Amino acid sequence: MLRLLLLRHAKSDWSDAAQIDFDRPLNARGQRAAPQMGAHMARHGLMPDKVLCSSARRTRETLGLILPHLSGNMEIRVTRDLYEDGELDYVDSIRALGGGARTVLVIGHNPAMQDTALELIGEGNPALRESIATKFPTAALAVVDFAINRWSDAERGSGRVVAYCLPRQLPGGALPPLSAAPLGPPPLAANDGGDGTSEPE
Q1: Is residue 181 domain-resident?
Q2: Where do the annotations place substrate binding (predicted)?
């Protein structure tokens, strides 16, 4: 069994219209949401042993804010590929991991993050799939399990989404618990899919 954690970067700062997109930092809301999501991951045993992170500033800052909450040894790869590419390239980056990493965290951007989730998850848990299809907001986390032993065997629709967590659901929001078992099947997380409106990167 393998587990994939898909995390969109936290909310970024749009106050400077002249700011180059790649260099935009997190805003105050994003700086609050990222460590909250990191603490949530720690509480529920969502500990990666491999991290793939876009090299954009907002994704690197998101990673920096969740790392203090994560334990254990993990390999971190920061790559511009996850900034510039679409979902097929995200999937290729995941498949290229081969074996060795049981739980992988990917920190990236929309629409590629949302499209990657929809590309990989099958028909199980249709309510969660529909929520992901409706909206994948900043700092949202999708947890996808695969009944495979190597990432190179991940195929379209081969994963099963087992949880979808939004920042607004974290303390003090109402978030049902995930399983603490690193690769056990957690109960479905209740989910608020958002209002379907687009959200700036």
Answers
A1: no
A2: 58
